[in-house]
Structures are given as structure tokens and as C-alpha cells.
Design a protein that fits this description.
By secondary structure, the protein is of the alpha/beta class. The chain has helices at 27-42, 56-69, 87-97, 110-118; strands at residues 2-7, 49-52, 76-77, 102-106, 133-138, 144-151, 156-159. It has one domain (2-159): 3-Layer(aba) Sandwich (Rossmann fold), CATH 3.40.50.1240. The model has no long low-confidence stretch (mean pLDDT 91).
Length: 163
């Protein structure tokens, strides 16, 4: 199955909000997220299902992606994607329940840890930029490989050798 792992877009400064949970996307964050979603769509990369963290900035990111890509199912919120959540448990549940492409929208450093775990450890050494997407292929045996990385600044979808 295809798994898209995306970090939320550019959000308000932590100092401008009383609660981290409520930090919203900035106008620049909304624009860049929309551009990333269009780049995915243009490349034929379409999740059928989008799962987001309950934090406002991640949910807004997921909803913008959904408005462009129009997945088969509505955006779903899962607590496991909140910072410090059990992301790997959620991914195992998703792999067992879905064959169609799924997108997870969450936060750093949890997303980097997840991708590293899925690749077998010590294979992912870069942080997720805001609105960055990593496309993975997960097989039934639990093996994963990177298919592409979408750089949100230049909107380049860089395919990985052998993917």
C-alpha cells in the first residue's frame, strides 16, 4: 500500500497563541499547503483516505489537501497522530485495514521517527519541513521503502532510486 506522510503547513508562532493545540495555519501556510496538494495531484499521487492529528494546524492542512485532491473518504482525526502519540500502532492498524493509499498529517519529530522506524532504523536522517510529504510503499511483510520526497519550497517531487 502507498502511505503518504505529511507535516502540517506553516503555523502561527507559539508565542501568538495561548495553547499549542489551537495554533492555526498562517496565510503563507495555507498557500503552500494548497500548492503541495496540487503538486501531488499533478503527479497522480492521490490518497483515498486522510488521517490527521487533532491539533488545529494539522487538521487545517489535511482539509486543504482534501479540498484539492478530493479523497474517497472524509478527513478523519486520530489522537495517535498528536505529538507523542502512538503513530506506529496507527500505521499497523491502517496497513491491516486498507489497501488504498492513505495520508497521515502530523508533527515533528514524531513523523521523522515514524519514517525511520518504517524503513528499519537509521535510514531517515532529515527533519520534515513544514508541508513536506514523503511517499512510502509498505508491503504486507512489513517492509517499507521511500517512493518520493516532495519538497514544499520548490514543489519538486523527487523520486527515489528503485522506488
Amino acid at each position: 500500500m502507498k502511505l503518504y506522510v505529511m507535516r502540517h503547513g506553516i503555523a502561527e508562532d507559539a508565542a501568538s497563541s495561548f495553547h499549542d493545540f489551537d495554533r492555526a495555519l498562517t496565510m503563507k501556510g495555507r498557500k503552500r499547503t494548497r500548492e503541495v496538494a496540487r503538486a501531488l495531484q499533478h503527479a497522480g499521487e492521490k490518497p483515498h483516505f486522510i488521517v490527521a492529528s487533532p491539533l488545529v494546524r494539522a487538521l487545517q492542512t489535511a482539509e486543504i489537501v482534501a479540498s484539492v485532491i478530493e479523497p474517497e473518504e472524509p478527513v478523519t482525526v486520530r489522537q495517535e497522530i498528536a505529538p507523542g502519540g502512538e503513530l506506529m500502532t496507527l500505521v499497523q492498524e491502517i496497513v491491516g485495514a486498507y489497501t488504498h493509499p492513505v495520508m497521515i498529517v502530523g508533527h515533528e519529530p514524531d513523523l521523522s521517527v515514524l519514517v525511520d522506524q518504517l524503513l528499519g532504523g537509521n535510514a531517515w536522517e532529515r527533519p520534515f519541513q513544514k508541508a513536506m510529504v514523503v511517499g512510502l510503499r509498505l508491503d504486507a511483510s512489513g517492509k517499507s521503502r521511500i517512493r518520493f520526497v516532495l519538497d514544499p519550497k520548490n514543489l519538486e517531487l523527487k523520486h527515489i532510486e528503485g522506488a
